[in-house]
Every structure is written in structure tokens, then in C-alpha cells.
Design goal:
CATH class of the largest domain: Mainly Alpha
Shape: elongated
CATH architecture of the largest domain: Up-down Bundle
Radius of gyration: 25 Å
Helix content: 55-70%
Strand content: 5-15%
Number of strands: 4
Number of helices: 8
Strand order of the largest sheet: 3-2-1-4
Order of helices and strands: HHHHHHHEEHEE
Length: about 300
């Protein structure tokens, strides 16, 4: 199982690196066209893409660290790097939203001339690049780290759509306020996604149980395993976002049957909750309990 997780993290790192190179390459093209066409919007979007390329690089480094083997100093490995990278990326997204709002308000107050045709063509190419990057990330491993990178790319993709629409509107109508208005809409969408991601990242860093697992249900299911009288001191957390860990004390009815109880409990945790790493401690009866077996168990 460890080898399988290592392979997935290596693949995720390679995908993130390709995504970073594509994003950074087009950012250079967009900046060049923006300077040539005198378009501040394109130059600003190029800076946005450079920021996203940095986020993708950070995610790739975190994926590489996550697949490093455990050591005496870091017995769980360095999987927590995924949470840290996702935290930095989510804060970066919030900073991006602030920049979008401030810039959009300034442009609403002081409209700036934009070369609609140059913006439209460049934005169409950028949209294609961002779709390719989003496809690469969507088909890869799913964890907090890649989701944070994916949100950055989706912000770029929405930015390309907005630039394309604003370019077309400006070309055909000359109405400049369309650009900041669409920027505010995109900022609102990014804000909702980034706050949701930030909540999940902080929950993970505080070693909370993964949102996909209900500890109450896990405790009741373990207490219903034949031979288990009750369960207490149940803890569920995650070092890596996609690898939950569990420890629990199981009060068993007959210590002579512990091996069968342990095997059945591990099988339950794997099949029902996808928990591969669990440490179960047997205890004889006459202990305080948190979950008891159901009468019909």
C-alpha cells in the first residue's frame, strides 16, 4: 500500500510540474503581447498566471515531500507538507481576490482604454492553455494539495473567459466597464472556493477527523464487531489528506479471541471507511466505555 501511495504522489508531482511549465510559458507570451498592445489588463493577468505558476510549483514540491519515506525524526513522513502548501495557496487565492476587487473598483471609477481584439485573441489562447492544465490536474490524484492548485487554475480559466468576453464586448460596443464588472464576479466565485478550501486545510492541520468520515459511526460499527463489548479512546486524523489514521481501545468479551476480533475490525475499517492505517488496543471487560455493542450485535 505504501508503494502505491508513493507512486501516486510521484505522478501527482509530475502532473503539477507540467501544469506549472505550461502556465509559466503562456504567462511570458501574455506579458509580451500585453506590453506590445499597451494592454494593462493582459500584463496584470500575466502577473496573475506567474503567481499561479508559483502555486503549482509549491504544490509539486509538496507532492515530492509527501512521498519521502518516514524517518526516525519524522515517523509519519512529510505528508503534512500537502496541508501547508494548500494553506499557502488558499491564502494566495484570498490575496488574489483582494487584488481583483481593488483593481476592478479602480477601473470602474477610472475606465481605461483596452485593445479589444488583442485581448480577445490572447484570452482565447489562454483559455485553451488553462483548459489543458485543468484537464491534467482533474485526471490526476485528488487531495488538498492538487485541489488547491486546481482552484488556482480555475481562477485563471475564469479570468481567460472574462477577458475573452470583455474583449469581444469592447471590440463590438466599446463599453469599458464590462472588464471590471466581470472581474468582480470572478472574484466572488474564487472567494467562495478559497474559503471552503481554507476551512478544510485548517481542520486538517488541527488534526480533526476527515469530513468524509463520521467518528460516531466508526465507533458504533467497531462496537458491533462480534466479540467487541465496547469502544473508547477513538481518534481519527490524517497526516496526508487522503490517508486517514485511526487509534482505538476495544474492550473484548474474551481475550482469547482477540486475533479474530482484530482481523474483523481491520477488515471493517478498510471496506467501510477506507482506513488502511489503524492501531487497535485490546482491553478486557470492566472498563469505562464510550460506545457499546448493540443488544442484537
Amino acid at each position: 500500500m505504501s508503494h502505491d501511495h508513493d507512486h501516486r504522489h510521484v505522478a501527482a508531482g509530475a502532473t503539477l510540474l507540467w501544469a506549472m511549465l505550461l502556465t509559466l510559458g503562456f504567462a511570458a507570451v501574455e506579458a509580451g503581447v500585453g506590453l506590445w498592445a499597451g494592454s494593462l489588463a493582459l500584463v496584470a493577468d500575466a502577473g496573475h498566471m506567474v503567481n499561479d505558476a508559483a502555486a503549482l510549483l509549491l504544490a509539486a514540491v509538496a507532492a515530492w515531500l509527501a512521498q519521502r519515506p518516514p524517518s526516525p525524526r519524522h515517523s509519519y513522513g512529510l505528508g503534512r507538507a500537502e496541508f501547508i502548501a494548500a494553506l499557502i495557496n488558499s491564502v494566495g487565492l484570498l490575496a488574489l481576490v483582494v487584488w481583483l476587487v481593488v483593481t476592478a473598483v479602480e477601473r470602474l471609477q477610472t475606465p481605461q482604454a483596452v485593445m479589444g481584439e488583442a485581448v480577445s485573441v490572447t484570452a482565447a489562447i489562454g483559455l485553451a492553455i488553462n483548459l489543458l492544465v485543468a484537464w491534467l490536474l482533474a485526471r490526476g490524484e485528488k487531495n488538498l494539495n492538487t485541489r488547491a492548485a486546481f482552484l488556482h487554475v480555475m481562477g485563471d480559466l475564469l479570468g481567460s473567459v472574462a477577458a475573452l468576453l470583455s474583449g469581444l464586448v469592447i471590440t463590438h460596443t466599446g463599453w469599458m466597464p464590462i472588464d471590471p464588472i466581470l472581474s468582480l464576479v470572478i472574484g466572488a466565485l474564487i472567494l467562495v472556493s478559497s474559503l471552503r478550501l481554507l476551512r478544510e486545510v485548517l481542520h486538517g492541520l488541527m488534526e480533526g477527523a476527515p469530513f468524509s468520515i463520521d467518528p460516531e459511526t466508526v465507533g458504533k460499527e467497531l462496537a458491533a464487531v462480534p466479540g467487541v463489548a465496547s469502544v473508547h479512546d477513538l481518534h481519527i486524523w490524517a497526516v496526508k489528506s487522503d490517508e486517514p489514521l485511526l487509534t482505538a481501545h476495544l474492550v473484548v468479551e474474551d481475550m482469547a479471541h482477540w486475533e479474530q476480533v482484530m482481523t474483523a475490525s481491520h477488515a471493517l475499517l478498510l471496506a467501510r471507511f477506507h482506513i488502511h492505517h489503524a492501531t487497535l488496543q485490546p482491553e478486557p471487560m470492566m472498563r469505562s466505555v464510550q460506545w457499546r455493542a448493540r443488544p442484537d450485535a
